[in-house]
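Record type: monomer structure entry
Structure origin: computed from sequence
Chain ID: A
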Amino acid sequence: MDSQLLSAVMVGCVASITMNLGKGIQKLKVHVWSPAKEVLSPAKRRDFLIWCAGMLMTTVAGLLFTQATRMTDKTSVVSSLNGVGLIALSIFSVIVLKERVGPREWSAVMMIICGTGMFQFFNKASEGGQHFDFNTLLFCLAGCVLVYAVLSVAANRMKKGIAFVYAAIAGTFLAFMVIFFDIAAVKGEGRPFLASILTSYWLLGFFMGNGAFLFTNMAFFHGAGIVIVPTVNSFMIVVPMILEIFIFKVMLLPVQYLGAGIIVLGVILLTTGGEKGSSHR
């Protein structure tokens, strides 16, 4: 692993941690918006400021994700680090919320660390640098919209799988968030950092990140976290690996796909443990 890739991984880890903690704080204080007209009332002002802090953290995470993508040539190198953010969120839950962590959760943490290490260690720079195909990007976006529109209609008619569909949409929004940040970095290559974020692609990425928060909360109204959390995070990790084949014309090594599979399995184990809901109050 060369020094630039190592730096990208470190920045990406901080970005993932910041994003997961920020969204965790937003989720913790989302009740402040009910009803919205009272959000600035004296009784809710403190919770509103905490919610804003979470929002600010997600914005900072977007800047960090952009910097990380500027330092590597694959979107998946950055998106695969999402498991690290989940570990930080779990530690936050243990320290702040006093939740119990058992052997299952520690095993999941080790799987995420091992899978992430495997993915990054075997990464090789793409020949000829990084380029993206705009027409293919539009095709991928249209394809995702069509697929999720059909799934949403079907799930609502059958009254089944609604939470999973909304969670998958949220995870795909996060995937496109990183992809758009990466495109902004490609367009701003060789230029100052501000050139990357002062673009429509970066703003679209920021919109996607907040859209993911909206759909995640919609999912929570229809199902349990045991389905929603692993679905969101798994889609964020896997979708960029698939789409970058078409959008950026890059392929990973088989061992990297294996590492990604280990990360996803670790994410599922970490976020579906039976003990995570209990606490020492």
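Annotation 1: The chain has one domain: 3-271.
Annotation 2: Residues 177 and 206 are 7 Å apart (CA to CA).
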